[in-house]
């Protein structure tokens, strides 16, 4: 079984649906005149993909 801190690390590194989820998102949020919904619209697909890949990867590497 995966150590809980590793699981939380993977989960926290995939926060892409918010401009405050990652520092690079904040860098472009203001100057690019993006709105919050822009991050949700683009980030939800990437978030879903990474959620599946992360879950499968953790199970494959550490097992259940």
UniProtKB/TrEMBL annotation:
Q: Which residues form the signal peptide?
A: none
Localization, UniProt:
Membrane
Q: How does it sit in the membrane?
A: Multi-pass membrane protein
Q: Which residues cross the membrane?
A: 6-30, 42-62
Name the keywords, alphabetized. Answer: Membrane, Transmembrane, Transmembrane helix
Coiled coil: which residue ranges?
Answer: none
User: What's a GO cellular component annotated to this UniProt protein?
Assistant: membrane
Q: Which PANTHER family match?
A: BASIC AMINO ACID ANTIPORTER YFCC-RELATED
Query: Can you name this protein?
Result: Uncharacterized protein
Mind giving the lineage of the organism this protein is from? Answer: Archaea, Methanobacteriati, Methanobacteriota, Stenosarchaea group, Halobacteria
């Amino acid at each position: 079984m995966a150590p809980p801190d590793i699981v939380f690390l993977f989960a926290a590194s995939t926060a892409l649906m918010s401009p405050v989820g990652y520092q690079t998102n904040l860098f472009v949020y203001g100057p690019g005149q993006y709105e919050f919904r822009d991050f949700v619209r683009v980030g939800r697909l990437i978030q879903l993909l990474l959620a599946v890949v992360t879950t499968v990867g953790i199970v494959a590497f550490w097992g259940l």
